[in-house]
Write a structure and sequence with these properties.
This protein is α+β, with helices and mostly antiparallel strands. 34% of the residues lie in helices and 16% in strands.
Length: 275
């Protein structure tokens, strides 16, 4: 008799009911079958983002006041001159679990996932975090955790006005000159997966701003891939590097050729734009 079966330890786990082990050929058939559903999911996600870009806008006064590293800042200041602003309400303040050494664990996981903001800036988009902690504490936390996200202190009722006074959430704003509109809001399960450049751009009114997107007439769009760059090499207003355009266009053409071949082959897995 195996004594461990009679006296399972505290770390004992039930046996996992794992999937079957199959041949490479059977595995590829299963992968292609799942790929059909994955592509359908991608198309549905793209359609949802297109609908999001057509959501009505809500005018806001824009008179909220924040405290930043350089002193007082308005909502307009948070845009840093760009057209789009994404504001994540993070909980780092007295009363939050972890204070004063840490911010909320969930909000900290979100901060850990944020991609380099230079890629958002290249799409005329600014991302900031806001909390009620003083700037000195925010600076200390950012240094400890290695975060470079712009982070401002709330000084008024912004959080209550925009649905983030009791729970985390992400608000999106658009500006034209001094006029500001709220265009989107997401929280709870929709908020937890934020952090990547594409997820952020997909919730903005302008989207990724690439030619394959279904956007309203007149929206700014450029060819996919061409605008991508190393995060320390973007130059505002610069044309895409012609060498990179050649490489990216060739890659795009190869992907489309492969997709067309698979579609003709009857797999049904890869159809339409593959950007």
């Amino acid at each position: 008799m195996n004594p461990s079966s009679d006296n399972p330890g505290p770390d004992a786990r039930p046996a996992m009911q794992t999937p079957p082990v199959v041949s490479p050929q059977e595995w590829e058939v299963a992968r292609q079958r799942l790929l059909v559903k994955e592509k359908a999911h991608t198309r549905a996600r793209d359609a949802l983002a297109a609908e999001r870009r057509r959501m009505p806008w809500m005018a806001v006064r824009g008179d909220d006041v924040f405290e930043g590293p350089q002193g007082r800042a308005s909502l307009l200041d948070l845009f840093e001159g760009r057209r789009q602003l994404i504001v994540y309400r993070a909980f780092f303040e007295p009363g939050v679990f972890g204070w004063p050494e840490h911010a909320c664990r969930g909000c900290s996981m979100v901060a850990d996932q944020v991609a380099h903001v230079a890629h958002l800036h290249a799409r005329d988009t600014t991302l900031v975090f806001v909390s009620r902690a003083p700037q000195a504490d925010i600076a200390r936390l950012k240094s400890r955790m290695g975060w470079e996200i712009p982070w401002f202190t709330l000084t008024d009722g912004f959080d209550a006005d925009f649905g983030v006074d009791e729970w985390h959430g992400t608000n999106v704003f658009y500006r034209d000159g001094d006029r500001v509109w709220r265009t989107y809001f997401v929280n709870a399960r929709g908020d937890e997966q934020m952090g990547g450049t594409w997820n952020y751009l997909d919730i903005t009114p302008l989207g990724r701003q690439e030619t394959w997107e279904d956007s309203p007439e007149g929206y700014p769009q450029t060819p996919p891939y061409n605008w991508w760059n190393w995060h320390d090499t973007y130059v505002q207003g610069a044309s895409p590097d012609p060498r990179w355009v050649e490489v990216s266009d060739a890659g795009d053409a190869a992907i489309r050729k492969q997709a067309a071949g698979k579609a003709r082959g009857g797999t049904g897995a890869v159809v339409g734009d593959e950007v």
